[in-house]
Amino acid sequence: MEDIIIIIIGAGPVGLLLACELSLTGARPVVLDRRPQPGDTPKANGLGGQIIDVLDHRGLLERLSAGSPFFGVPPGFPFGSVPLRFAGVDGIPLRMLMIQQPRLERLLGERAAELGVRIRWGHEVTSLAQDAESVTVQGEGFALRGRYAVGCDGGSSRVRELAGIGFPGTTDDEQVWLGHFTTGTETGVFDHPRVAGLGPGWNRTPAGRVLVTSLQPGVHIVGVREVRGDAAGRVTIADFQAAVRRVLGDDLPLGEPIWLSRTRSQARVAERYRSGRVFLAGDAAHLFPAGGSALNVGLVDAVNLGWKLSATLAGDGPEGLLDTYEAERRPAAERALMQTRAQAALERLPQEEGDALRSLLTEVFAYEEPVRHMAALLHGSDLPYGSGGHSLIGRLVPDLRVVTEDGERRVAELMHRGRPVLLDLVGTASLDQELGGRVEVVRARCADAPAEAILIRPDGVVAWAGSGGDGLAAAAEQWFGRGSVGAVR
Ligand SMILES: Cc1cc2nc3c(=O)[nH]c(=O)nc-3n(C[C@H](O)[C@H](O)[C@H](O)COP(=O)(O)OP(=O)(O)OC[C@H]3O[C@@H](n4cnc5c(N)ncnc54)[C@H](O)[C@@H]3O)c2cc1C
After folding, report:
1. Same domain, 215 and 345
2. pLDDT digits (tens, 9 = 90+) for 389-430
3. How many Cβ atoms from other residues are within 10 Å of residue 408's Cβ?
4. Which of 143, 216, 298, 314 has the maximum number of C-beta atoms within 10 A of its C-beta?
């Protein structure tokens, strides 16, 4: 039996980012993954929402966006099939970054290696047991005991099952076929007359929906959705072509398959995010039935949990700190579930009812305020953690430009080390005292300061904002423990 402090099960994007966060904030995790090596399955094509701002806080945005075909505020977003147009509307917080999932995992893996994270490939967890002091995970040829374990092992999480956590929700009766193909002819599948008549996104046919698109030269993506009984086993090119024929009414010159998949959308949130010493994060905790939110919610889970686990392991975490993980992140998943279910419903409604609802929403989305509201919903910032006090509290700190003694900085740059920061914007002597060594105090000037001082958690969330220090000591104690407030007056 090997003793480890913290065990992460799953080296997908969420497990890798959690490992980075833990290492950055002082814990030493071990990551186990059943795959023999990092994979190249082309799942997500991009990230969007709050996670972009959070990755900026860690100084990771530059490396992730290098060479990306798109990074920034998108001109719009297809909500269900209703276009939301952001161009020309002020105050859109939503940024998107196109990055293929294998590349995202490779870059997060490189970052984890820089931080000294140990990843053990070919380690499939098959059993889990816990008592008051520890959790033990085992698989063929290994047994590890840790103080905590986190299941980042995806939608069909074994950890969730072994921890006895239910995963209520629904599975769509529609089958989704997705394939990536290398182009067979000069323009490949796009030469076909049936494809020339298709619009961007999913196209309705009498038998289902079909998508033909390309995100990189020489490779096209074909998707088919159809209501059909369960089929199990490996997907062959013949199965795929048959699905295309059923839904489009014709064969397509698909080319050479790179990757084929057949899934059903699921809409689920785990009934608990914690069972004793075991936590869930990412797809293990939630699955959404429409695109665009899974990585945003899952990766922010990792950043929310990382510093709380590190503080608890270091003995600095206040009572109940770990419980705030579920209290903050489960509502975020519920919110994403609501909007992705709405998107899925918009796509699935019968033609007449669907057309009526889509027309109505198109009219509503012509106004700026609903568009801003939808952008905040998709960004994940419309629901602050907790309520009361200054309007910044419970939200991601705005990326203000401040002038420190080292020159001009963005607030995001002050968060690279993953430490709590007290940003003292008026040089109030009573505030910039040493906060027990756990909080970094940065004295700065800011032309449009929203408060005299802002206390920022390691995950970039504002713990306190205000003037004169009223409530600061209580907030520092609430989030960073008793030792953090010794010198605050
Ligand atoms: C076709 C497709 C397109 C998508 N597009 C997007 C998109 O554009 N944007 C977006 O945000 N999301 C998208 N998603 C969803 C996104 O891919 C997932 O949300 C993401 O992979 C979840 O990351 P994760 O780390 O939680 O889990 P996973 O990526 O599933 O990683 C789980 C890891 O756990 C390992 N594991 C599982 N069981 C065990 C075990 N018992 N022991 C040890 N290891 C184990 C697995 O090998 C795997 O490496 C898409 C998904 C698909 C399928």
Report:
1. no
2. 899 999 999 999 999 988 999 999 999 999 999 999 987 655
3. 11
4. 298
